[in-house]
Amino acid sequence: MKHLPLSALLPPLLLALALSACQREAAGPLDTATAQTPPANDQPAEDVPPATAPAVAPPVSDTLARFDGYGDLRFGMSAEEAKRAWGGELKGEAAADGGCYYLRPIWAQNAAEFGFMIENGKFARVDVGNDKETAPGGGKRGMSADEIRKLYAGRVEEQPHKYVDGGKNLRIGDAGGGAGALVFETDAAGKVTAWRIGVPPQVDYVEGCS
To answer: pTM of the entire structure?
Structure first.
């Protein structure tokens, strides 16, 4: 058998290698645009409720009178505790027998205008007979009975006034479930002449400390 010299074989071999390399370059890398994986869905599968606005804080009361007291004073405090909580001068002398009496600020002419009822040594009620003070819920002296009924709709208990013909006592309990009650007194024309707030039984004393 006749053998070709190596020098005769090299050119065809080199040509074959060159063609192979050209074919690989022509094929090129895999098109990355078509090979990319679709982005994952980052949305939750379940329905998500829309964001809600923060709750609006209830308006701050513009009255010092409360179903559990007045300002820093709380029903059930001792007379001395009530005086300290008031912080200013209060007129009034304790009853010798430890019974019912009133403390009032220096600007009040009498307890009927404004006074704190003390009985058995405890603060139990506030009496208001002026136009400056506002009851919790918005009631005031000078309002009509109909205005009171609207302000405290569904909460008013009506009774005839013991001493005023045609007058009424409009009693409102604490909507928060406390023991306190608010009582408006009206004249025969249906106008509020005074109101009081306190705890039973003192809040229901028609004659005050008399």
So the answer is: 0.71
